[in-house]
Automatic annotation (TrEMBL):
Cofactor: FMN
Species of provenance: Kitasatospora cineracea
Keywords assigned by UniProt, alphabetized: Flavoprotein, FMN, Oxidoreductase
Domain FMN hydroxy acid dehydrogenase: 1-358
InterPro entries from the UniProt entry: Aldolase_TIM, Alpha-hydoxy_acid_DH_FMN, FMN-dep_DH, FMN_HAD, FMN_hydac_DH_AS
One term of GO molecular function: oxidoreductase activity, acting on CH-OH group of donors
Domain of life per record: Bacteria
Keyword Oxidoreductase: yes
Active site, UniProt feature: 256
PANTHER family referenced in this protein's UniProt entry, alphabetically: 2-HYDROXYACID OXIDASE 1, S -2-HYDROXY-ACID OXIDASE-RELATED
Name of the protein this chain belongs to: 4-hydroxymandelate oxidase
Record-linked CDD domains: alpha_hydroxyacid_oxid_FMN (cd02809)
Ribonucleoprotein listed as a keyword: no
Entry binding sites for glyoxylate: 129, 164, 256, 259
């Protein structure tokens, strides 16, 4: 059957992936309250359509940190794309380029930064965790800038990994044949084994992530690269103001897809206060729970410049590689076009909070 919505790829991916990999993708932390709340906030919001508006042409183009994009729908950083398809991140990058979409590659990508950059025809950003080994972090930043990545996305909500019970029950570890190839293997050994009642992901983070990260450390990162710095994991006005004060170039409202602090604010709830606390020229992005083009319109109306999509991209990758990812992005773009037209707000700039009732 022809896929008519991203959820069609969800069903196809579940049929193809091992159960423990499926749980790794779909699961959240704790009782998965935040995971469910991310979706619930989008499902409970309602739109206020305007009529008698010329919607013969819709336009979802934008410019983000100097890069022109065809859509505000980007690809969120997720580790180990080769868990889902042999071509991994290179397939994802090609699909993003076909869609004119931003791709944020993960620090634990399973393809080299160089091969991802070679495959990409659109803008690439690189996501980072703050590692204890700053020399490894600095080397990765240097490589990314050299091959054309356009921004660094520092994830700030993971001083340790949340208790992800599905992974712990499955004893999930990264298969030996799939590696985070951009880092020294000695840094990644723990990710390939799992202690009883834990997971390789959690054990690796405990070993390698530096929990002493503070706002003062941003100066160290700024000294090592001229690339814009984006902070991912901002949920409060207080942290949004501090990000602006420390010269950050953009922020991502994110709760790690419900995989860190269970009970944390859903992202659509947190978005308005973050937007209100940041200067108008500091872009605010959002991830977590976005599943449809209408969800994208809701986020943009409430102040997001763009959204990042995680799980649906992996569904498409698992189902049909590059073409699956491209089709997921195409479906989301088509849904967003339909929403803009039926909402009577044909351009992204026409979306504002008056379009939404929550």
């Amino acid at each position: 059957m022809e896929a008519l919505e991203p959820a069609d790829f969800e069903r196809a991916a579940r049929a193809r992936l091992p159960a423990e990999t499926w749980d790794f993708v779909q699961g959240g932390s704790g009782a998965e309250r935040t995971l469910a709340a991310n979706r619930a906030q989008f499902e409970q919001a309602r739109l206020r359509p305007r009529t008698m508006v010329d919607v013969s042409t819709t336009d979802q183009r934008l410019t983000l940190l100097g890069s022109p994009l065809s859509t505000p729908i980007g690809i969120a950083p997720v580790a180990y794309h080769q868990l889902f398809h042999p071509e991994g991140e290179t397939a994802t990058a090609r699909a993003a380029g076909r869609a004119g979409a931003l791709m944020v590659a993960g620090i634990f990508a399973s393809r080299t930064l160089e091969s991802i950059a070679e495959a990409a025809t659109g803008p690439l950003w690189l996501q980072l965790y703050w590692l204890r080994r700053r020399d490894a972090l600095a080397a990765l930043v240097e490589r990314a800038e050299a091959v054309g990545f356009r921004a660094l996305v520092l994830t700030v909500d993971a001083p340790r990994i949340g208790r992800r019970l599905r992974d712990a029950r499955n004893g999930f570890a990264v298969p030996a044949h799939i590696r985070a190839v951009n880092l020294d293997p000695s840094l990644m050994a723990a990710s390939h084994r799992a202690d009883a009642g834990s997971s390789g992901i959690a054990d690796h983070a405990k070993e390698q992530f530096d929990p002493t990260l503070t706002w003062a450390d941003l100066a160290w990162l700024r000294e090592r690269s001229s690339l814009p710095i984006v902070l991912k994991g901002i949920l409060t006005a207080e942290d949004a103001r501090l990000a602006a004060e420390h010269g950050v170039d953009a922020v991502v409202v994110s709760n790690h897809g419900g995989r860190q602090l269970d009970g944390a604010l859903p992202t659509l709830s947190a978005l308005p206060e973050v937007v209100a606390a940041t200067p108008p020229d500091l872009p605010v992005l959002l991830d977590g729970g976005v599943r449809t083009g209408t969800d994208v319109a809701l986020a943009v109306a409430l102040g997001a410049r763009a959204v990042l999509i995680g799980r649906p991209i992996l569904w498409g990758l698992a189902a049909d590689g590059e073409n699956g990812v491209a089709r997921v992005l195409d479906l989301l773009k088509t849904e967003l076009d339909d929403t803009l037209a039926l909402l009577g707000r044909p351009r992204l700039a026409d979306l504002d909070p008056t379009a939404v009732v929550r």
